[in-house]
Write a structure and sequence with these properties.
398 residues; alpha/beta; Nucleotidyltransferase, domain 5; 2 domains; eight-stranded mixed sheet; 15 helices; 14 strands; 19% strand; nucleotide-binding; magnesium ion binding; kinase; EC 2.7.2.1; cytoplasm
Length: 398
């Protein structure tokens, strides 16, 4: 079975075509600048050179159409016709309390997904556009929605409730939802295999660290707490996001900077985080370069990030009553040797002991803890596309 995995952003489409016989990626690519001047499709077929196709792409339907054309192209295509695509798996950011697992998309499901757009206004409409585009171009192909929030629906109320009036939770759904669930689920499953244990018998802390970051406590294979909250703004300091702050800061910012609700939301999501603290960049590689040259604000931003990740690791070890493994994943977690070292430093009291030589690695599954470390520490590259494909296969096989 060949599964087409689609991840639509507001002006982009990431995609992979995966052959589920051996879970190999047949082709992958990225459509950028949808509806903007300079639209481009970068298509990479397995075993062939990368192809860059520049043309106007006014909307997601046209973007998906160009991707499908690339997949069947005589020169750089990988399939003879679209009939070879057996199913489509869509990444959907928010499932609210309605969806606690992946689902086959029906008209009713699509309406429910669309109705949740207020929960994720930057992402959900784009996800819906991608689904509608695939339905229009492949009307007879099964479509599956895989939700970022679904894995976290196992959190108990003590973890997901906020201290607002209970009526606000019931009326408006104001609670912690968590995100990056597909990634946390995938890497915790791989970690359990590396531990040689049934995941039901494990306590694992997964650190998805990138431009957007979240940490999750996975107890017995279930998410019991996570750092992101009602939106992906909550939790640790991120590339351009504040992370957790005193909520009373918000009205002060609005008053002092003359911002309305939309303005302060944009400010906290786009202008803060390590970018705002450092004044240098939201890219951790740029921060490390600047810090190495003596930039104190860049160093402060890096130190704040590592401190906050460490604080969540300690909190989640306490919440679960112990921890068997800590996992680093995503762009920073997989590639930043210093961040992993700094997060683990000081966790010796938990039984964490990092091996400096093993930690000198990027982007491949590795145990980076010392042989005598009581808590295993792993680098596990995430593979959200494969996880989406696996769920799609499971549902469509039924």
């Amino acid at each position: 079975m060949k599964i087409f995995v689609v991840n639509c952003g507001s002006s982009s489409i990431k995609y992979q075509l995966i052959d589920m016989k051996d879970e190999s990626v047949i082709a992958k690519g990225l459509v950028e600048r949808i509806g903007i001047e300079g639209s481009v499709l970068t298509h990479t077929p397995a075993g062939k050179d990368k192809v860059r196709l520049e043309s106007a792409i006014p909307d997601h339907v046209d973007g998906i159409k160009k991707v499908l054309a690339a997949l069947v192209d005589p020169n750089h295509g990988v399939i003879k016709s679209m009939d070879e695509i057996d199913a489509v798996g869509h990444r959907v950011v928010h499932g609210g309390e309605i969806f606690n697992e992946s689902v086959v998309i029906t008209d009713e499901v699509l309406k429910q997904i669309e109705d949740l757009s207020d929960m994720a206004p930057l992402h959900q409409p784009a996800n819906v556009s991608g689904i509608r585009a695939c339905q229009k171009l492949m009307p007879n192909t099964p479509q599956v929605a895989v939700f970022d929030t679904a894995f976290h629906q196992t959190m108990p109320p003590v973890a997901y409730m906020f201290g607002v009036k209970y009526e606000e939770y019931k009326d408006y759904g104001i609670r912690k939802y968590g995100f990056h669930g597909t990634s946390h689920k995938y890497v915790s499953g791989v970690a359990a295999q590396l531990l040689g244990k049934d995941i039901k018998d494990t306590k694992i802390i997964t650190c998805h660290l990138g431009n957007g970051s979240s940490i999750t406590a996975v107890d017995g294979g279930k998410s019991v707490d996570t750092s992101m909250g009602f939106t992906p703004l909550d939790g640790v300091l991120m590339g351009t996001r504040t992370g957790s702050i005193d909520p009373a800061v918000v009205p002060v910012l609005m008053q002092k900077k003359g911002l309305d609700a939309a303005g302060v939301d944009k400010y906290m999501n786009k202008e803060c985080g390590v970018l705002g603290v450092s004044g240098v960049s939201s890219d951790f590689r740029d921060l490390e370069d600047a810090a190495a040259k003596g930039n104190e604000r860049a160093q402060l931003a890096l130190d704040m990030f590592c401190y906050q990740v460490k604080r969540y690791v300690g909190a989640y070890a306490a919440a679960m009553g112990g921890v068997d493994a800590i996992v680093f994943t995503a762009g920073v977690g997989e590639n930043d040797i210093h961040t992993r070292q700094q997060v683990c430093a000081g966790l010796e009291f938990l039984g964490v002991k990092l091996d400096a030589d093993r930690n000198n690695v990027r982007g491949k599954v590795t145990e980076i803890s010392a042989a005598d470390s009581k808590v295993k520490v792993f680098l596990i590259p995430t593979n959200e596309e494969l996880a989406i494909a696996q769920d799609t296969l499971r549902l469509c096989s039924k």
